[in-house]
Amino acid sequence: MSEQPSFSVWWAFPAYVLLSIIAVPVASYLALAGIASQNPALFYGIEIGIVAILLAFSWPIYRLISSPKALSEQQNKQDAIFRSMREGVLVLDPEKKIISLNRAATKLLKTSQEEAAGRSLLEVVKNEELRNFLLEASQKGEFVEDIELRDQKELTFLQVRRVSLEDERGEAFGSLFVLNNVTRLKRLENIKTDLVANVSHELKTPITSIKGFVETLLDGALENPEDSKRFLQIISRHSDRMTAIIEDLLTLARLEGHNVKELMLLQEESLGEIVGTVVDVCRSKAEEKDIVIEVDCGKEVAAVVDRSLVEQALINLVDNAIKYSERSSKVLICAEQEKDSVEICISDQGPGIEKSHLPRLFERFYRVDRARSRNMGGTGLGLAIVKHIVSAHDGSLRVDSEVGKGSKFSISLPLQ
After folding, report:
1. Residue 357 and residue 371: Cα distance in Å, rounded?
2. What domain range is 171 assigned to?
3. What domain count does the chain have?
4. Which residue, 83, 111, 126, sits at the end of a domain?
5. pTM of full prediction above 0.85
6. What's the helix, strand, coil split of the chain in %, to 5?
7. 295-311, pLDDT tens digit by residue?
8. Any idea what the Cα angle at residue 384 is, between residues 383 and 389, rounded to 5°?
């Protein structure tokens, strides 16, 4: 009697057959599809029909096996796009529960995906203004609207877009919100608006004066040599002021440009030589007020800088120190080399600056004493230029001041 096959053999045989039934069509599809597409001349007559039948038989099984992988890959790609979006995306169901949200949305809502998923909007969104806005918006149709949020001292501007989610029958099953943080854009818009207003105001005064004195001269003042000379001197002074404002604005525009570093001529320079040039430029103004400029800087102190820009920054600071210092006082310039940087300090014995003014001191057209600054010929842009020059060198700028004792401006520049 012949030996009967074991149970394991009989179990393995149908498994082998099943795998063959699946594997052969898949392999056939891949092979025949490739051959038929690349070498159609190999098949003639009935062979073409056989190939077509095999392809038709193989394709459904091949698609059945390959589709889950393709769908998984597609889902992974969509998830990656969803996670990496800069805009916050929030999906709510009709009961205002969170179906899904991306990483950007968690930052805006100050939560996490684990905490938020499946929970009510009322539980997740802590900011009352935003919570009420989203609850009301979920009842509306498609729209785009800006909202201003105040969270303690922080002010945030959001642009919110809402889209209703509908199925194939057109029935709504939720809301999709796109939250775009436009705070930086709003700030830039405000800066632009303030700049236009400030420039207009600063130029209006000299233009009005020039126009007034020109009209006076045309009305007969030209016949009086003393008056005409005095009026022309005033016109010249206001023209110089307008020129200074325009030149400072052009300097700021250049420093704020994206390619400022490309335009800088960086090389190792002696800070002692730079300070010496600054003192020479400012000496005449100091002598007019009997102010002594003291220097504490060795020629061995050096850094990789754009010499013309650093000179301009120091001239602006020393010029301010002279303007606001009392007669027969001192202005001290010192430079010291540290481990990774160079520290340059300009100290004066002026009236000092109140602490409330310090945070805004380097803003364009910001003045502690507007009337006094204009009378001294300041444009209101000098310290803003200093800030941008230091920033272009990847340095830092600090001011320490005490009312009645004077101010100290410190610039820190990296050695390389």
Report:
1. 16
2. 86-181
3. 4
4. 83
5. no
6. 55, 20, 25
7. 988 778 888 999 999 99
8. 95
